[in-house]
Design goal:
The chain contains 9 helices and 17 strands. Helix content is 25%, strand content 27%. The relative contact order is 0.17. Helix 4 crosses helix 5. The strands form 4 sheets. Strands 3, 4, 5, 8, 9, 16 and 17 form a 7-stranded mixed beta sheet that branches. The chain folds into 2 domains: 195 residues, Medium-chain alcohol dehydrogenases, catalytic domain (Quinone Oxidoreductase, Chain A, domain 1, Alpha-Beta Complex); 129 residues, Rossmann fold (3-Layer(aba) Sandwich). The protein has 330 residues and is of the alpha/beta class. The model has no long low-confidence stretch (mean pLDDT 95).
């Protein structure tokens, strides 16, 4: 099979011919039809996430078709269309798994980081962490739902549970934000979108998707927010978001990597404001999210690239040249 392989952090991916992997008893072999390109892929590529499996096949927004089931797999069938997300394995035994917090598992493994991912023609996955996908999405448009959608939804759910009103700020209007703004607006939430200063095209894009207000991240919103979600990996945005949220508000950091948070005066945190991170996802998050995604059609804005142009897709994401999400096609 063909695969784009990361052999050393910071070096371009290399096209390689590799054997098709064989599934273990608890795994499925999946023919990859599409794989989204996520900002986390960039963090792995750049060496900002430590100790990746090397050599490594990136990619954790995988859409494909089951072509072989391991002997112990009962709930999936050959020919079934499935999605493979970031969380690829948990032990089921540690105190986090036993408490229903498998996203914090001590021995978790991650697709496209510690496990080979979807920048390839085939991949294997633990059948427990494979999701059947809604039928009314095609392969390209459903791919971003596997991470931008799932992690975005977990961030949104945690923010929504703490909100005492309906004013939600989103800092960084990329793949995750453009998905969850549609869910939020459908649920009666007013979304305030913050982009890079001067990025008027993305601000217009946010408004078209239903944002109530959009401006640069150097601006204050016209009224206090009840919650804010930060998707941009920029630590400076945490004090900015704290300034923007009302008393008792919450700031949720939705990325796996962020630059250092600068010091800020305690008065920004005072009055029971909260800052929290989001780590990975649980299967319950995925099941709930895909139930919502089945109830209406989430519009994903994508740009498709052939598999061999994976380096170009990563660079386009890095430089902000993609509105929505990039998707690789083997």
């Amino acid at each position: 099979m063909r695969a784009m392989v990361l052999e050393q952090a910071g070096q371009p991916l290399q096209m390689r011919e590799l054997p098709v992997p064989r599934p273990e008893p608890h795994q499925v072999l999946v023919r990859v039809r599409a794989c989204g390109v996520c900002r986390t892929d960039l963090h792995v590529f750049d060496g900002e996430l430590p100790n990746p499996k090397l050599p490594l096949i990136l990619g954790h927004e995988i859409v494909g078709e089951v072509v072989q089931c391991g002997a112990a797999v009962q709930h999936l069938s050959i020919g079934q269309r499935v999605g493979i997300p970031w969380l690829g394995y948990t032990c089921g035994e540690c105190r986090y798994c036993r408490a229903g917090r498998e996203n914090l598992c001590d021995r978790a493994q991650f697709t496209g980081y510690t496990l080979d991912g979807g920048y390839a023609e085939y991949t294997v996955a633990d059948a427990r962490y494979v999701f059947p996908l809604p039928s009314h999405y095609d392969e390209v448009e459903v791919a971003p739902l596997l991470c931008a959608g799932l992690i975005g939804y977990r961030s949104y759910r945690l923010a929504r549970e703490a909100m005492q009103g309906n004013r939600l700020g989103i800092y960084g209007f990329g793949a995750a934000a453009h998905i969850l703004v549609q869910i939020a607006v459908r649920e009666g939430v007013r979304v305030f979108a913050f982009t890079r200063p001067g990025d008027y095209d993305t601000q217009d894009f946010a408004r078209r998707l239903g944002a109530w207000w959009a401006s640069g991240s150097d601006q204050m919103p016209p009224e206090p927010l009840d919650a804010a979600i930060i998707f941009a990996p920029v630590g400076d945005l945490i004090p900015a978001a704290l300034r923007a949220v009302a008393k008792g508000g919450i700031v949720v950091c939705g990325g796996i990597h962020m630059s250092d948070i600068p010091s800020f005066p305690y008065r920004l945190l005072w009055e029971e404001r909260i800052v929290r991170s989001v780590a990975n996802l649980t299967r319950w998050d995925g099941e709930e999210f895909f139930r919502k995604a089945s109830q209406f059609h989430i519009q994903t804005h994508t740009q498709a690239f052939p598999l061999e142009q994976a380096n170009d897709a990563l660079e386009a994401l890095r430089t902000g040249k993609i509105q929505g999400a990039a998707v690789l096609l083997p």
